[in-house]
């Protein structure tokens, strides 16, 4: 009779160890697959969020037109979309060639700006200290990164057709998708889902209104200030400052860098004046516009905003940084509605029972 090797204690131990190895290997493989799937799904989630912001913008604009004209909401949304399209088309029609020429000039002259900035800094003691502190950085890498930024920042518009088309579909009939989400929730949670979706819509509408106002104000003040100081490429720098203001904390600093470098091509004093000008404009925006935004949406702690931007930038790149703030606002609404308020209700009910 042939003896089964697994029947002995040694055989059972070997088989058990082999099974554990295969189980651990399978778990690790599954974990890696899940991570990749979640990362891909998260990228899709960001695209959906960007599309939702487009729909929220058009419906928010439609709400404003509805209050002014008393027309039906659908007609007001259509009017708002047509007005927005006409405004963007007119902007590119009147200033598109100028902006494109200035972007090309800024991109091609960037290495020369770096050299002139270094030459200007080398004439002062403080400037030499600054040059010494950045001497370890790779100049070619900095220039290629900056040039790539200018190329991609204004070149990705044609690659966002997925977001635009999704935004159009969400704008046409958002009720379908809203009701679809509610239907997916359990019966006991449908009311909470309705409340959460409505509150997220209100928060995002208020945030977008404030951000659009802030971007417009930043662009106008910047172009006025740069034109007053006779800085080249004033229009492009102003539009860049307005667009990058969409990214809290880091955006204004990113917008200030090319303007200061252009200032160095004139003189060190002009670079300092430009830096101060940008800081003053940002101070006005932070103390006038930002409080108005906070009244329309939940208060976002600055440290939490920065951490979310760093995390989102690490996970999803520029799109993650761009959408970190609205995503953080959505998460805070979810936590507030689905956890904090329920805990408060539970605590009040316990106090009532004790009484």
UniProtKB/TrEMBL annotation:
GO terms for biological process: transmembrane transport. Its main location: membrane. GO terms for cellular component: membrane. It holds the Pfam family AI-2E_transport. InterPro entries: AI-2E-like. It is a multi-pass membrane protein. This is AI-2E family transporter. It comes from Pedobacter quisquiliarum. The lineage of its organism: Bacteria, Pseudomonadati, Bacteroidota, Sphingobacteriia, Sphingobacteriales.
